[in-house]
Write a structure and sequence with these properties.
- The complex is a heterodimer of chains A (101) and B (175).
- In chain A, 76% of the residues lie in helices and 0% in strands.
- By secondary structure, chain A is mainly α.
- In chain B, helix 1 packs antiparallel against helix 2 and helix 2 packs antiparallel against helix 3.
- Chain B has a domain of 80 residues: Up-down Bundle (Four Helix Bundle (Hemerythrin (Met), subunit A)), CATH 1.20.120.
């Protein structure tokens, strides 16, 4: 079996879908953040696979930037979760409805 | 099947199990540990794709830094009422899973089209493409502006996280 681009893209598509389902199904805000990280990593895998098979270094730089943004997002997001937990004593997103959305 | 094929199947199976485990497990700590497993397997796949630098950064930044942040938050919040938060399967969640299935079918269809990709002519070998030396050179020439913007973003994230997690931050305006 010769490894092709499509094998990596299938894996990436599966990871992304499970991440989307996780965001829709789970109610724990921290687990939802983890599912967002899953989706970001699925896209990173696609970038690296394309970078390898197209002989283009720019895909790897994109992954580098995505990782940086993910780190910033995780830090701010978890700070928001802590602030919410301090005020509402819960991380269940069904009970966090102060915006009346 | 050659060595890279066996490695791909092994790491792919690990990723599938860890991904489903992250979403499935009731306890957020178990979710976080499954996610760490996932990140290590992804690092292995990056090595398979000859992206050594990104593989190391993946393990250090994601498995090392970001997941420690997650685990610390779970520890600080001390979610002992996770059982009460236990999620039961209702119609809305069934619909969400159905939508996820539709998304997967769409993605697999698009991948199955096998659109030909252009291969870039470059003087570098595939191994050199993943080396820190060449990534750094690209980062400080063609990607210099995004690189500087990202540094500002990180500074803002540090300040924002401290302000948000401060003791006296309330959601209601002071009257």
């Amino acid at each position: 079996m010769q490894l092709e681009l499509n094998h990596y893209l299938w894996l990436s598509a599966f990871m992304f879908t499970v991440g989307v389902v996780g965001v829709l199904v789970r109610r724990n805000a921290i687990v939802i953040f983890m599912c967002i990280e899953l989706m970001l990593n699925a896209v990173n895998l696609s970038f690296i696979a394309f970078s390898h098979f197209m002989r283009d270094i720019q895909g790897q730089l994109m992954v580098f930037f995505v990782m940086t943004v993910a780190a910033a997002e995780a830090a701010v997001g978890l700070a928001i979760v802590i602030a919410l937990f301090r005020n509402k004593q819960t991380v269940n997103i069904d009970e966090i409805n102060i915006l009346k959305g | 099947m050659d060595v890279s094929g066996i490695l791909f199947v092994f790491l792919g199976a690990q990723i599938i199990v860890a991904t489903v485990g992250t979403v499935w497990s009731r306890n957020p700590v178990t979710s976080a540990l499954f996610l760490v497993l996932n990140f290590f397997a992804l690092g292995g796949l990056y090595l398979l794709l000859e992206a050594q630098f990104i593989a190391v950064v993946q393990v250090i930044v994601y498995a090392g830094a970001i997941m420690v942040l997650f685990l610390f938050t779970i520890m600080l919040l001390n979610l002992d009422n996770e059982r009460a938060l236990a999620e039961k399967f209702d119609l809305r969640k069934g619909f969400a899973v159905l939508l996820g299935g539709v998304l997967l079918v769409e993605l697999l269809y698009i991948i199955g089209l096998k659109t030909p990709i252009p291969i870039k002519q470059t003087a570098l070998t595939t191994v050199q493409l993943g080396e820190a030396k060449y990534i750094g050179r690209e980062l400080l020439t063609n990607f210099l502006f995004p690189f500087e913007i990202v540094s500002i973003l990180l500074l803002l994230a540090v300040v924002g996280a401290i302000v948000l997690a401060k003791k006296n931050f309330t959601t209601s305006p002071k009257s």
